[in-house]
């Protein structure tokens, strides 16, 4: 039993969880400089003196310990948990795949359990600082995992986070930063995250956000375009798509115009074209049942454009 305080007894003098975790983290330092962490232990003749190999062996034990303690609400101090986050983000796979070794699966499980922890207001800046650090990682798997972690953390701590407006703005900035990521998978996940945050009204779809997304979506693509121009334009389209998908069963005042803005991108290069088609397809599916009511929110010109989009040959191409 470590750091257990029982009624009418003296607190434990030793050992302490914080001191133990500090010593463990010191031995895991060889892994912190690597962009991604892989299982170094493949052969029996691996030299025991190799620091990375020893660190990976220790990390496997730490992951088991974290999973066991997470089920009882983390007994590890928050500061020590956050120091472990960068390592977990580097290990955890983006998709569940049986081909991944046990260490990767354990890291994914640990991230999932840690993201479900309830936070006190004073812990939120520490968590966001760790996520912002990993959002700048060289590994796109780590940047992707930041978004999946963020989604769960926000929904489990929604009311606590809403009580700290400054942190809400930090999360909005972080999602917008990853919406502009060079990796397509990260941008797609950022769009999904943005849609979920808008749907639960974590932050409003105000005029400043709409303007920001529309400006990005209107980035010019010159004939000799670079990847940066395409990324910015796609980020804007993903953001506009997130707005549409955040209201699956009603038509807010802003939706008709955003649908018209998206229609201008139907002939854009990939992956923009596919994003627009998926969004229109989902809009049609979710608004089909009450379409007679929803169509009253559109002008005749908008209805004509929308009808042409949803039944035209290019939509099904």
Automatic annotation (TrEMBL):
GO terms for cellular component: cytosol; nucleus; spermatoproteasome complex. Residues 231-317 form the Proteasome activator complex subunit 4 C-terminal domain. One of its GO terms (biological process) is proteasomal ubiquitin-independent protein catabolic process. GO terms for molecular function: peptidase activator activity; proteasome binding. Pfam families: PSME4_C (PF11919). This is Proteasome activator complex subunit 4 C-terminal domain-containing protein. It comes from Seriola lalandi dorsalis.
